Amino acid sequence: MSSSAGGDATTRERILDAARAEVAERGASLTLGHVAARARVSRQAVYLHFGDRTGLLLALVRRMDEQLQLGPSLEHVMAAQNGLELIRRTMELHARFNAGIDAVAQMLEGAQYHDEALGQAWRDRLTFRHGVHRRLVDRLAAMGELADHWSAERASDVFHALTLPGPWRELTRECGLSQERYVKDMTLVISRALLR
Amino acid sequence: MSSSAGGDATTRERILDAARAEVAERGASLTLGHVAARARVSRQAVYLHFGDRTGLLLALVRRMDEQLQLGPSLEHVMAAQNGLELIRRTMELHARFNAGIDAVAQMLEGAQYHDEALGQAWRDRLTFRHGVHRRLVDRLAAMGELADHWSAERASDVFHALTLPGPWRELTRECGLSQERYVKDMTLVISRALLR
DNA sequence: GCGCTACTTGACACGCTGTAAACCTCCGGG
DNA sequence: CCCGGAGGTTTACAGCGTGTCAAGTAGCGC
Predict the structure, then answer these.
(1) A182 phi and psi, to 5 degrees?
(2) Taking phi first (over 0 means left), then psi (-120 to 50 degrees means alpha), and beta for anything else, what does residue B43 get?
(3) What is the least distance, in Å, from the CA of A79 to any CA of chain B?
(4) Segment B41-90, tens digit of pLDDT
(5) Does domain B11-57 match CATH 1.10.10.10?
(6) Is the pLDDT of residue A1 over 50?
(7) Are A27 and B113 a contacting pair at CB < 8 A?
(8) Is A48 in contact with A32 (CB distance < 8 Å)?
(9) Number of C-alpha atoms within 13 angstroms, CB side, residue A172?
(10) Considering only CA atoms, which residue is closest to the C1' of nucleotide D19?
């Protein structure tokens, strides 16, 4: 329930909604002044709630984590009955997920090298993401479908790296692939790479 | 005029060298003050030579283009006698190339959304890069080795997107793969994806 | 009414960018 | 020998964004 509808949302929520919108529009170069103006609070209110710019962005990232409810989607992926289907579901999840978080992800990626805390936040998410792919690969192995030439570790490295937001962004935003095409083509690439 | 001729380090060259070093150390958050100090010139000298911050970074990018001498390497890749070898050589080139340009590439990627000119510079390079992969795929097709399910366009999209600096960075810097492993694993992935 | 919380207003120090003006210094030419 | 320009330096300043501070105010429970 990220209300963007007027009245009785808390100030904190209004600021976060404004920050989300500003990130979407201006990317990493948002200013606290603009965020505050959009939320119709004073710039100082932002400092009172979040300490500093970094604190605001971290809170934004954390709220998106909560809102995304990744758990059920992951269970659905894991419930796939064969390797190809597991990979297809994974790519569907990536396509949907990436579309939702891309603006924030881009901001985090850009900020990671001059803001230690944001860098850590991004790294944490990548580590989690890597872990998920490791579990997926383990499942493939348990089903006896992982190709012999891969260790589980290396396969998860590749699975993780090739499905990052970067390639998704390039394919869908610049090369003009639809989400469906992304899912289809990447499913093909990954399944040919990882499966027997 | 700029780089190639004799050995006397012009002020302009000293500034560019300093900028390159600063980018390597501080990424996108370099300041003109630091660049100038490192080059042992006044901050204003930087403005006299390059106009503004963006101008300096564009000049840096252009100089790296010139220094990299991509042509011969590309010819070597194109001279491969079969599809697998062509892909292997491509991945070797990427591994070497990425290691050299990564700091600057990262800076450009990060800057692209709040600096139109830098964004354009990055986009130009990606477009060129995409074109190269298109030619590689055409070569694969001419050799009769491109798998049937790919159109040349789509195959080049995927080839291009999966070999971007982002995945390379993740695999070699975060997952700890050596350059050799990167080449080996990615050659496997791409060849299984694209070849018959 | 009291006091607390939440927020506002206005001011300020700091760092970085970008511009401006005055000066300095070497070097070549009339 | 003096002139002038090219290339650089120094100092100053405006603009903007961050982060901090202090004082003030509106609403609310008690």
Answers:
(1) -55, -50
(2) alpha
(3) 25
(4) 999 999 999 999 999 999 999 999 999 999 999 999 999 999 999 999 99
(5) no
(6) no
(7) yes
(8) no
(9) 21
(10) A52
Please give the full DSSP string across A59-120, using - where no structure is assigned. Answer: HHHHHHHHHH-HHHHHHHHHT-SSHHHHHHHHHHHHHHHHHHHHHHHHHHHHHTTT-HHHHH
Question: If we measure between CA atoms, which residue out of B21, B154, B100, B27 comes closest to residue A180?
Answer: B154
| Chain A residues within 8 angstroms (CB to CB) of chain B | 26-29, 106, 109-111, 113-114, 123, 126, 130, 149, 154, 157-158, 160-162, 164, 166-167, 170-171, 174-175, 177, 181, 185-186, 188-189, 192-193
Question: Which class for A116: exposed (0-12), middle (13-18), buried (19 or more C-beta within 10 A)?
Answer: exposed
CB contact under 8 A, B175 and A130: yes
The DSSP element (H or E) to which A113 belongs, if any, is: none
Q: How confident is the model at residue A8 (pLDDT cuts 50, 70, 90)?
A: low
Low-confidence ranges of chain B (pLDDT < 50): 1-7
Q: What is the CATH number of domain B69-194?
A: 1.10.357
Average pLDDT of chain A, as a whole number: 94
Q: Is B81 exposed, middle or buried (0-12, 13-18, 19+ CB in 10 A)?
A: exposed
Q: Is A11-64 in CATH node 3.30.428.10?
A: no
**Predicted pLDDT of residue B3:** 40
CB atoms within 10 A of CB A89: 20
Could you state, in order of their start, the residue ranges of all structural domains in chain B?
A: 11-57, 69-194
Taking the CA of residue B114 and the C1' sugar atom of nucleotide C1, their distance in angstroms comes to 54
**Buried b / exposed e along A3-30 (16+ C-beta atoms within 10 A):** eeeeeebeebbbbbbbbbbbbeebbbeb
> Which residue does chain B place closest to A103, by CA atoms?
B113
> What is the reported pLDDT for B5?
39
CA of A31, C1' of D27: distance in angstroms: 30
